[in-house]
Design brief:
single chain, alpha+beta, 6-stranded antiparallel β-sheet, two-stranded antiparallel ribbon, 8 strands, 34% helix, elongated
Length: 181
């Protein structure tokens, strides 16, 4: 009696496991995961970002934000891991810093000096508020490093800055790619 029961269980288990195996010999990745891996392969690593780009962003921010004009921050810097198959990709999300600085020309120049030499391009936009003031938006992007830097300069409120990376691979030079500087 036990043998037929084990046989039936073995057949059921094999059928359930077979349903999990991808057809056509694929790696078991969906199209979005495959696209994420392909995109990450075309970008610099998370370690290269932390070594080459993040210090420039911080220098630009710190040239504008001082002890006297700093007001607040929200969130904490964090590096997310994104497992895909046998690989892990990483994405960094920075804090948003807010400080008193209302000169969009000065802000743009500070970031341009640090980011343009690294190949960043800036997209600008403005928003005219109902009270007659203007908010200026600068979106710095770099396709090589897969990073975006968002800066808003407000005439009647605070300037804010944050940055984020796409999913990036690790190049193996760090024992812990999620470790913040």
């Amino acid at each position: 009696m036990r043998r037929p029961l084990f046989g039936v269980l073995a057949v059921v288990l094999a059928a359930v496991c077979a349903a999990c195996v991808p057809f056509g010999g694929g790696k078991g990745l969906n199209p979005e995961q495959k696209a994420d891996l392909a995109r990450a392969e075309s970008l610099e690593s998370i370690e290269a970002f932390k070594r080459d780009v993040e210090p420039a962003i911080i220098r630009a921010r710190n040239s504008l934000m001082t002890r006297d004009n700093y007001r607040s921050y929200s969130r904490n810097d964090y590096i997310y891991d994104h497992p895909i198959g046998d690989q892990t990709l990483y994405s960094l999300m920075s804090r948003t810093y807010e400080f008193d600085e209302h000169d969009p020309v000065r802000v743009r120049a500070a970031f341009a000096a640090e980011l343009e030499p690294l190949g960043f391009e800036c997209r600008e936009d403005t928003l005219n508020d109902d009270d007659g003031t203007t908010d200026f938006f600068f979106f710095w992007t770099n396709v090589r490093y897969g990073v975006g830097v968002a800066v808003m300069v407000s005439e009647n409120w605070l300037t804010s800055i944050s940055y984020k990376t796409d999913y990036l691979r690790s190049d193996g030079t760090s024992a812990n790619p999620k470790k913040l500087a």
